[in-house]
Amino acid sequence: MASQKERMLAGALYTADDPEIAADAARAAAWMARYNASLAWSAADRHALLVEGLGQVGEGVVVRPPFHCDYGSNIHLGTRVFLNFGCVILDVVRVEIGAGTQIGPGVQILTADHPRDPALRAQGLESGRPIRVGANVWIGGGALILPGVTVGDDAIVGAGAVVTRDVAPGATVVGNPARPIEA
Length: 183
Known about the structure:
- Helix content is 22%, strand content 28%.
- With 183 residues, the chain is of the alpha/beta class.
- The chain has one domain (4-181): UDP N-Acetylglucosamine Acyltransferase, domain 1.
- Strands 3-6-9-14-17-19-20 form a seven-stranded mixed sheet.
- A hairpin with a 4-residue loop joins strand 19 (172-174) and strand 20.
- The model has no long low-confidence stretch (mean pLDDT 96).
- Keywords: Acyltransferase, Nodulation, Repeat, Transferase.
- One of its GO terms (cellular component) is cytosol.
């Protein structure tokens, strides 16, 4: 039988209060406390700290503190990715952000999901669906990327958009829920 952590990483229903998962969250919280106190550090020192706390960090990545995540280990950032102040990534499963992507302040990337059945929610069960953001994407400030979404290469997500569905490569989406517009 799979452990709760294995269930979480597979996107199946799991309980987040499992001791192994809670220990991973505590490690991430300690890492975030150090990272979020690093604003005055050199870019090289902050990059080294990112490499320590995240699953993959390409060259030239900049993440401006404060930054918040669940575990960090499920976050994979390509080269030259930029996350502005106040970004949140709930990474109960894999989050992949492609090279050259720029993410505005206050953006939330949320893989965590909950059952639609109230009886399952009452049991404290959760799940996750992976998110992939392609290369050279621009996500405007305050946007929300919801579980299971893929944003294609070269796309633009407008400020404040709530992205509930996949975004085609090169498309521009705005609004709540986000819809394509002519660029």
